[in-house]
Amino acid sequence: MKKILAFVLAMVLCVSFATVAVSVLGAETATETPDTPTFDPSKPYFKVADVEVTEEALAESSQVVVPISIVNNPGIWGFKLQVELGEGLTYVSLAGLDTKEMPSNSYTINDEKMLITFDGPEYTVNVEGDVVVANLTVQLPADAAVGDTYEIAMVPQDPDTCVSTNPEANPTPVEGIQFVGGSVAVVETPAVSTTAPVTEAPDVTESGDVVTTTAPSDPGTSPITGAVAAPVAAVAMAAAAAFVIAKARKK
Prior knowledge:
24% helix
Protein backbone atom coordinates (compact mmCIF):
# COMPACT_ATOMS: atom_id res chain seq x y z
CA MET A 1 0.00 0.00 0.00
CA LYS A 2 2.80 2.41 0.91
CA LYS A 3 4.52 1.64 -2.40
CA ILE A 4 1.33 2.40 -4.35
CA LEU A 5 0.83 5.67 -2.47
CA ALA A 6 4.43 6.72 -3.08
CA PHE A 7 4.05 5.94 -6.79
CA VAL A 8 0.88 8.00 -7.02
CA LEU A 9 2.51 10.97 -5.29
CA ALA A 10 5.51 10.75 -7.62
CA MET A 11 3.22 10.82 -10.67
CA VAL A 12 1.35 13.84 -9.32
CA LEU A 13 4.62 15.71 -8.80
CA CYS A 14 5.80 14.88 -12.32
CA VAL A 15 2.54 16.12 -13.88
CA SER A 16 2.71 19.34 -11.82
CA PHE A 17 6.29 20.09 -12.90
CA ALA A 18 5.39 19.39 -16.52
CA THR A 19 2.39 21.76 -16.34
CA VAL A 20 4.51 24.55 -14.85
CA ALA A 21 7.19 24.07 -17.49
CA VAL A 22 4.64 24.23 -20.31
CA SER A 23 3.04 27.35 -18.80
CA VAL A 24 6.36 29.16 -18.53
CA LEU A 25 7.35 28.18 -22.03
CA GLY A 26 3.98 29.35 -23.34
CA ALA A 27 4.35 32.69 -21.58
CA GLU A 28 7.80 33.25 -23.05
CA THR A 29 6.56 32.35 -26.50
CA ALA A 30 3.61 34.74 -26.18
CA THR A 31 5.83 37.68 -25.23
CA GLU A 32 8.18 37.21 -28.17
CA THR A 33 7.60 39.74 -30.99
CA PRO A 34 9.04 39.70 -34.48
CA ASP A 35 11.86 42.13 -35.17
CA THR A 36 10.57 45.36 -36.70
CA PRO A 37 12.94 46.85 -39.29
CA THR A 38 14.37 50.16 -38.15
CA PHE A 39 14.01 53.00 -40.63
CA ASP A 40 17.39 54.15 -41.93
CA PRO A 41 17.17 57.62 -43.59
CA SER A 42 20.55 57.09 -45.27
CA LYS A 43 19.23 54.22 -47.40
CA PRO A 44 16.90 54.45 -50.42
CA TYR A 45 13.20 54.73 -49.63
CA PHE A 46 9.85 55.57 -51.17
CA LYS A 47 7.88 58.20 -49.23
CA VAL A 48 4.25 59.24 -49.25
CA ALA A 49 4.20 62.99 -48.66
CA ASP A 50 2.79 64.60 -45.53
CA VAL A 51 0.25 67.06 -46.94
CA GLU A 52 -1.58 69.89 -45.17
CA VAL A 53 -4.88 71.14 -46.54
CA THR A 54 -6.57 74.28 -45.23
CA GLU A 55 -10.22 74.34 -44.26
CA GLU A 56 -10.78 76.93 -46.99
CA ALA A 57 -9.33 74.63 -49.66
CA LEU A 58 -11.29 71.72 -48.23
CA ALA A 59 -14.51 73.71 -48.64
CA GLU A 60 -13.76 74.02 -52.35
CA SER A 61 -12.79 70.37 -52.89
CA SER A 62 -12.54 67.35 -50.61
CA GLN A 63 -10.06 65.64 -52.94
CA VAL A 64 -6.34 65.95 -52.19
CA VAL A 65 -3.35 64.99 -54.35
CA VAL A 66 -0.55 63.32 -52.37
CA PRO A 67 2.83 62.90 -54.14
CA ILE A 68 4.93 59.76 -53.72
CA SER A 69 8.69 60.25 -54.06
CA ILE A 70 11.90 58.27 -53.99
CA VAL A 71 14.67 59.53 -51.70
CA ASN A 72 18.37 58.62 -51.83
CA ASN A 73 17.68 57.25 -55.27
CA PRO A 74 20.57 55.06 -56.47
CA GLY A 75 19.05 55.01 -59.95
CA ILE A 76 15.92 52.99 -60.66
CA TRP A 77 14.56 51.34 -63.78
CA GLY A 78 11.42 49.80 -62.37
CA PHE A 79 9.34 49.62 -59.20
CA LYS A 80 6.03 48.50 -57.72
CA LEU A 81 4.19 50.60 -55.11
CA GLN A 82 1.03 49.82 -53.16
CA VAL A 83 -0.75 52.10 -50.70
CA GLU A 84 -3.09 51.41 -47.82
CA LEU A 85 -5.49 54.13 -46.67
CA GLY A 86 -6.30 54.89 -43.07
CA GLU A 87 -9.81 55.22 -41.70
CA GLY A 88 -11.81 58.06 -43.24
CA LEU A 89 -9.98 58.28 -46.56
CA THR A 90 -11.46 57.14 -49.86
CA TYR A 91 -9.29 56.08 -52.78
CA VAL A 92 -9.75 58.09 -55.97
CA SER A 93 -6.80 57.27 -58.21
CA LEU A 94 -3.10 56.56 -58.65
CA ALA A 95 -1.34 58.26 -61.54
CA GLY A 96 2.11 58.19 -63.00
CA LEU A 97 4.04 61.08 -64.42
CA ASP A 98 4.41 61.99 -68.06
CA THR A 99 8.01 63.08 -68.51
CA LYS A 100 10.78 62.04 -70.86
CA GLU A 101 12.32 59.80 -68.22
CA MET A 102 8.98 58.53 -66.88
CA PRO A 103 6.35 58.59 -69.68
CA SER A 104 2.79 57.75 -68.79
CA ASN A 105 2.73 54.64 -71.01
CA SER A 106 5.42 53.04 -68.83
CA TYR A 107 3.01 52.75 -65.87
CA THR A 108 0.51 50.03 -65.08
CA ILE A 109 -2.19 50.85 -62.51
CA ASN A 110 -4.41 48.49 -60.56
CA ASP A 111 -7.07 50.62 -58.89
CA GLU A 112 -8.64 47.67 -57.08
CA LYS A 113 -5.40 46.90 -55.24
CA MET A 114 -4.28 50.57 -55.12
CA LEU A 115 -1.07 49.48 -56.81
CA ILE A 116 1.10 51.15 -59.44
CA THR A 117 3.96 49.58 -61.43
CA PHE A 118 6.61 51.32 -63.49
CA ASP A 119 8.88 49.76 -66.14
CA GLY A 120 11.42 52.10 -67.71
CA PRO A 121 10.98 52.90 -71.42
CA GLU A 122 14.62 52.07 -72.17
CA TYR A 123 15.96 48.98 -70.49
CA THR A 124 19.44 50.44 -69.94
CA VAL A 125 18.39 53.87 -68.64
CA ASN A 126 17.80 54.58 -64.94
CA VAL A 127 15.71 57.39 -63.45
CA GLU A 128 18.16 59.44 -61.41
CA GLY A 129 17.76 61.84 -58.47
CA ASP A 130 15.23 62.27 -55.69
CA VAL A 131 12.01 62.77 -57.64
CA VAL A 132 8.25 62.34 -57.48
CA VAL A 133 7.39 59.01 -59.10
CA ALA A 134 3.58 58.94 -58.74
CA ASN A 135 0.60 60.87 -57.45
CA LEU A 136 -2.13 59.49 -55.21
CA THR A 137 -5.52 61.23 -55.08
CA VAL A 138 -7.71 60.63 -52.04
CA GLN A 139 -10.99 62.04 -50.81
CA LEU A 140 -11.48 63.29 -47.27
CA PRO A 141 -14.72 62.59 -45.39
CA ALA A 142 -17.50 65.17 -45.31
CA ASP A 143 -16.98 65.77 -41.60
CA ALA A 144 -13.23 66.43 -41.88
CA ALA A 145 -12.31 69.29 -39.57
CA VAL A 146 -9.29 71.28 -38.42
CA GLY A 147 -7.01 69.08 -36.35
CA ASP A 148 -7.92 65.84 -38.14
CA THR A 149 -5.06 63.75 -39.55
CA TYR A 150 -5.53 60.82 -41.94
CA GLU A 151 -2.78 58.23 -42.33
CA ILE A 152 -1.56 56.65 -45.57
CA ALA A 153 0.66 53.58 -45.37
CA MET A 154 2.80 51.87 -47.99
CA VAL A 155 2.67 48.09 -48.32
CA PRO A 156 6.27 46.75 -48.34
CA GLN A 157 7.11 45.07 -51.62
CA ASP A 158 9.58 42.37 -52.51
CA PRO A 159 12.99 44.03 -53.11
CA ASP A 160 13.09 42.36 -56.53
CA THR A 161 10.23 44.64 -57.64
CA CYS A 162 12.41 47.74 -57.27
CA VAL A 163 15.34 47.40 -59.60
CA SER A 164 18.10 49.34 -61.26
CA THR A 165 19.83 48.37 -64.46
CA ASN A 166 23.26 48.76 -66.03
CA PRO A 167 24.78 49.07 -69.51
CA GLU A 168 24.62 45.28 -69.82
CA ALA A 169 20.84 45.47 -69.27
CA ASN A 170 20.90 43.25 -66.20
CA PRO A 171 18.28 44.38 -63.66
CA THR A 172 19.57 44.40 -60.08
CA PRO A 173 17.40 44.71 -56.94
CA VAL A 174 17.93 47.95 -55.01
CA GLU A 175 19.40 46.82 -51.70
CA GLY A 176 17.68 47.93 -48.52
CA ILE A 177 14.80 49.75 -50.23
CA GLN A 178 12.27 51.04 -47.66
CA PHE A 179 8.62 52.11 -47.85
CA VAL A 180 7.49 55.03 -45.67
CA GLY A 181 3.91 56.24 -45.27
CA GLY A 182 2.55 59.76 -45.00
CA SER A 183 -0.57 61.67 -44.03
CA VAL A 184 -3.12 64.35 -44.86
CA ALA A 185 -3.79 66.92 -42.12
CA VAL A 186 -6.52 69.56 -42.04
CA VAL A 187 -5.26 72.92 -40.77
CA GLU A 188 -6.68 76.38 -40.20
CA THR A 189 -6.67 78.89 -43.03
CA PRO A 190 -4.01 81.55 -42.25
CA ALA A 191 -5.60 84.82 -41.16
CA VAL A 192 -5.16 87.85 -43.45
CA SER A 193 -4.22 91.05 -41.62
CA THR A 194 -6.62 93.97 -42.17
CA THR A 195 -4.85 96.47 -39.88
CA ALA A 196 -4.00 99.77 -41.61
CA PRO A 197 -0.35 100.85 -41.47
CA VAL A 198 0.48 103.30 -38.67
CA THR A 199 1.71 106.74 -39.79
CA GLU A 200 3.36 109.38 -37.62
CA ALA A 201 1.52 112.69 -37.12
CA PRO A 202 3.28 115.75 -38.65
CA ASP A 203 4.93 118.34 -36.41
CA VAL A 204 2.83 121.50 -35.84
CA THR A 205 4.18 124.91 -34.72
CA GLU A 206 2.49 127.18 -32.13
CA SER A 207 0.92 129.17 -34.94
CA GLY A 208 -0.64 126.04 -36.36
CA ASP A 209 1.70 125.68 -39.36
CA VAL A 210 2.58 122.13 -40.38
CA VAL A 211 6.33 121.52 -40.52
CA THR A 212 7.48 119.27 -43.35
CA THR A 213 10.50 117.17 -42.43
CA THR A 214 11.27 115.84 -45.88
CA ALA A 215 15.03 115.42 -46.27
CA PRO A 216 16.71 117.40 -49.07
CA SER A 217 17.61 115.43 -52.16
CA ASP A 218 21.23 116.63 -52.02
CA PRO A 219 23.31 117.38 -48.89
CA GLY A 220 23.79 121.10 -48.34
CA THR A 221 20.75 122.20 -50.35
CA SER A 222 17.41 123.50 -49.20
CA PRO A 223 14.34 121.29 -48.87
CA ILE A 224 13.62 122.24 -52.45
CA THR A 225 14.66 119.51 -54.85
CA GLY A 226 18.21 119.67 -56.18
CA ALA A 227 17.01 120.59 -59.64
CA VAL A 228 15.27 123.73 -58.31
CA ALA A 229 17.81 124.71 -55.64
CA ALA A 230 20.67 125.16 -58.08
CA PRO A 231 18.96 127.93 -60.14
CA VAL A 232 17.89 129.68 -56.94
CA ALA A 233 21.47 129.75 -55.70
CA ALA A 234 22.65 131.07 -59.07
CA VAL A 235 20.11 133.93 -58.95
CA ALA A 236 21.16 134.85 -55.41
CA MET A 237 24.84 135.00 -56.42
CA ALA A 238 24.02 137.15 -59.46
CA ALA A 239 22.04 139.58 -57.28
CA ALA A 240 24.92 139.87 -54.82
CA ALA A 241 27.36 140.58 -57.63
CA ALA A 242 25.12 143.32 -59.07
CA PHE A 243 24.87 144.95 -55.62
CA VAL A 244 28.64 145.04 -55.26
CA ILE A 245 29.10 146.59 -58.74
CA ALA A 246 26.46 149.25 -58.08
CA LYS A 247 28.07 150.19 -54.78
CA ALA A 248 31.45 150.51 -56.46
CA ARG A 249 30.09 152.93 -59.08
CA LYS A 250 28.64 155.23 -56.39
CA LYS A 251 32.09 155.59 -54.89
